[in-house]
Structure formats: structure tokens, C-alpha cells
Amino acid sequence: MIENHLLEYGERIKLDGKDKKIIEQLQKNAKQSISQVARKTNLPRDVVKYRIKRLEENKIVRFYHAFLNPSKLGFPLYVYAMFSLYNIEPEEESKFVSFLRQHPNLIYVAKTSGKWDFCIGVCARDYKQFDEVLREIRKKFTGVLKDYEAMPIIQEYKYDWMADLIE
Predict the structure, then answer these.
(1) Where does residue 148 rank: exposed (0-12), middle (13-18), buried (19+ CB within 10 A)?
(2) Strand boundaries in 9-133, DSSP class E
(3) Given this model, what pLDDT does residue 1 score?
(4) Domains in the chain: boundaries
(5) Rounded to an integer, what distance in angstroms lies between the CA atom of residue 122 and that of residue 6?
(6) Does this model's pTM top 0.85?
(7) φ, ψ of residue 148 in degrees (nearest 5)
(8) Domain 15-67 falls in which CATH fold?
(9) Considering the domain 70-152, what is its CATH architecture?
(10) Span between the terminal Cα atoms of the chain, in Å
(11) What digits encode the pLDDT tens for the residues 3-20?
(12) Distance between CA atoms of 73 and 70, rounded to whole angstroms?
């Protein structure tokens, strides 16, 4: 994972209807050619190309990604796990995050606010492997972890569709 793909905060970028049409098409299918996006948005190809480049430069479009189906790859168990930590020093938190990011079974890692400090997405072949992953985290960070909760994903209904939020 490249650092500049991660969520970052900053000043709001003003978008218009043309940008929204382009973003909608990219969210439907990021593999489309610029010509296909231009045709579907009724915008000139050069306009689409320029605006996509601007959306990327402004980090509105962070990256293009193949959204894989874990079950079809032999990982039918997909679980979000939330962790609450004791008040820890930044150096210890950095070690925790580094460990989570390098773990092959963890496909999502986010720092959160509220009851839970971190949320991770775990892909596992079965409950035994899932339990091993959580035990590994708990054993390595015994003095850091206060509490955790696991939520297996049964069915997804929506994923990262932000085009409707654009004003």
C-alpha cells in the first residue's frame, strides 16, 4: 500500500456537475477508457482526461482498486474487529499500527474515534485461522489492548459510493 492512497483531511475542493458525472462513471467501473467515460457523460474526451487528472492531483480520486471477493479466493470468513487501547505513547501506537499493516490476513486498518480506537478487517480461511490472528495480536500487545469485539460480515449491501454526496 502506498501512503498517498490513504484518507487525508484538508480543504474542500469545489466540484461541479461535470466532475460528478465523471466520478459516477469511475465508481461504476474504473476500468473504463477515457473515451467510454466521455461517451457516457456526454463530455468531450479532452475535458474528461483533464478533469480526471485534476481529480487525481487534488486527491479526490485516491487510487483505482480491484475490489476482490475474499470468499472466491478461499477466505470465506471476513470479519471486522474493533480494538480499544489503553492510553499509550505514540511510539507504542506506531508499533501496533506497523504490526497490523504488515499482517497478511489484515486487509483493512483504520484508526477510529469513540469507544473503539482501531478497526481492522480480517480475512480468514476458517474460524481457527481467525482465532489465531486475534490471538497473535492479543499476545503481542497484551499491555496495550484494553478490549476488542469481532463482527463477522454476512452480506455487504453498499461499498464506497460517494458520488451522490457531491453537491
Answers:
(1) middle
(2) 77-85, 106-111, 118-124
(3) 44
(4) 15-67, 70-152
(5) 18
(6) no
(7) -150, 160
(8) Arc Repressor Mutant, subunit A (1.10.10)
(9) 2-Layer Sandwich (3.30)
(10) 30
(11) 556 677 778 889 999 999
(12) 5
